[in-house]
Structures are given as C-alpha cells and as structure tokens.
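Title: Prediction job returns without error message
Component: structure pipeline
Severity: low
Priority: P3
Assignee: unassigned

Description:
Job completed but the reporter wants confirmation the result is attached to the right record. Sequence as submitted:
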Amino acid sequence: QEETPVVLPNLEYSYISPPGSFGGMTTLDADLRALTREKGATSQRISLTPGWQISNTDSLGSITSFRTSVQGDLYNVNDVSTPNGLKDAVVGRIFPQAIVSWRYPWIRRSGPNSQLLEPLLALVLAPNGGNPDKIPDEDSQSIAFDETNLFAANRFSGTDRVEGGQRIVYGMRTGVFGELGGNSTLTVGQSFRFRKSNPFPLGTGLEDQLSDIVANLQIKPNRFTSLLYKTRFDHDSLRARRTEISSAVGPPALNLNLNYVFFDRTSGFADREEVTAAVKSKLTNQWSAQIQTQRDLTTEGGTLSYGGSLVYECDCMNFELVYARTFTTDRDIPRVESLTLR
C-alpha cells in the first residue's frame, strides 16, 4: 500500500504572447515536480508544452480557432507499478496535438431581450496511445467530465495522462439575455472517438466511443437569484448518471445557498446523494460570516459535516476563523472537530 506522497518542489509556469501580425499567439506551459514516498512509487518530472493558436472571424460571423501544441515530458521514476512488476526507469514522451474548433453565434433582438443560438464543433487530432506503463498516474486520477472540459484538448485533470486519438466534438449553446441583467443559458454537447480504444476508466462517461451527453442550464432572473443545473446522461439509456443543482437566493447581506449532488454507482464508486446548505452574510465591506451543513441522503446516510466561519478581508490581509466538525470515517481517518485560524 502506497503512502501519502510529499510533493516538493512543484513549480508551474504559463505564458501567452501578445497577438502577432496575423493574430496568432505563442504559448508555453512548463512544469517541474518532485514526488517522494518512503514506501511506494516516487518520481521527478519535467514537462514543457510549447504551442501556437489563432482565431478568425469571417464575414458571416462564424468563428474558427486553431491550436497546435507539443507536450514533452521527462520522468525519473522508482518503484513504479507496471504489468511486469515494480520498475525503476528514466522515460520520456513527445505528444503532439492539434484542435480546430468552430462556432457560429446567431443573435436576435426581441423587445428588451436578446436571444442566442450557437452551434459548436471541434476536431481533435493526436497520435494514438501516449501513456507508457512506466509513467505513473499521480495527478490525473480524478476525471470530472462535464461541459467545462467537453471541448478541451486533454480531458484528464493533470499532466501525467494524455488523451490520444482522434475525435469530433459537437454541441449547442442557447440563451436569453435581458436588458436589466437577467439571463438564462443552456449548453448541451457530446463527443465521438474514432477508435474504440481509450485511456478512460469505466464510469467517467468517456469510456465508450460515443461519450455521455453533458448539459448545463443556468438561470439568473436578477442579481439576487441564481439557479444552476448540471447533468450527464448515459448515451444509450439517457438515464442521468450525474445531477448537480445549485441555487443562491438573497442579497450579499443575507444569502442562502442550497446545493444537491447525485452520482450513480457507475461513476466509479457507490451511489452518492448529498445536499449542502449554507447561509452567508456580508456584515461590512471587510467582514463576512457563514454557517453550513452537509448531509448524506442515501439509505445509510446522515449528517456529514457542519461548521461556520468568520472572515476579514482588506487590501493587505485576509483573516479567517473556521470551525468544522466532520462525521466521515474511513480506515485510519477518524471523525474530526477543528478550529482553524488562517
């Protein structure tokens, strides 16, 4: 059993150049990480990803964007688990990728409102594979597939895993926008992979050639009320595999937040259904307070946590006093009651 790692140092750098004469921009993402365990896999990683991107709006109003990049990684690993046992190695990876995206926003004025209809399309090209057994997965194990990363070049959360292969992504965004600031938007999309093989585990919504359908509905009738509904539908049965509902009501002086989340058992763990409620109050320009509670709604559920916080913020200092009590236990993780000053 591997121990919790120590990550030191962990340095990240990102650069985007000003637009050139034709509007193209050069990018660079760099990463340096050393991960150490007394028992289990250890690794040191250097990653460099230079890229170039450009966007063009034609005379009809459609917007075409192009981005290409080459990710270069060098790993020094010890005791990494492979199908042939534990290995020590120095391993490298060169992974080129290109993405062409297109969108065509249609806008119509109707009285005090503006209506939006925008088809979305993208083609992602990359070599197949790209994840050698000797490169350990330390930062890409959590995969949350939704509308925010539907059109991303790499839908893994980190650098250790890359998404090889070719795929097409398509979707639609629509919305209504009022003159007084109220608006409602809906985004729906899906992707199709040209090859059956893929690097994603079962339950992520990306394990098949045809991905699950993701959707996001946001309703903000005024600045004091908002509702967010996010879901992921199974591409065969159209059954909801994930549902998230968030609502916020009230001015900053007294704001009520209510959040509901549901994941079915195919998402990599047992059924999960929870609700979180919080009351927030901005007492002054600098002082704010909050109380919240979280409850498990499954059959053997109950209160998972509750607590509160008092926060002071100004231009030169943040001060936070947090009380929390958690009731979740897992092996050597006990229930915790804590008072934290930060």
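Comment from assignee: result matches the submitted record. Residues 101 and 122 are 4 Å apart (CA to CA).
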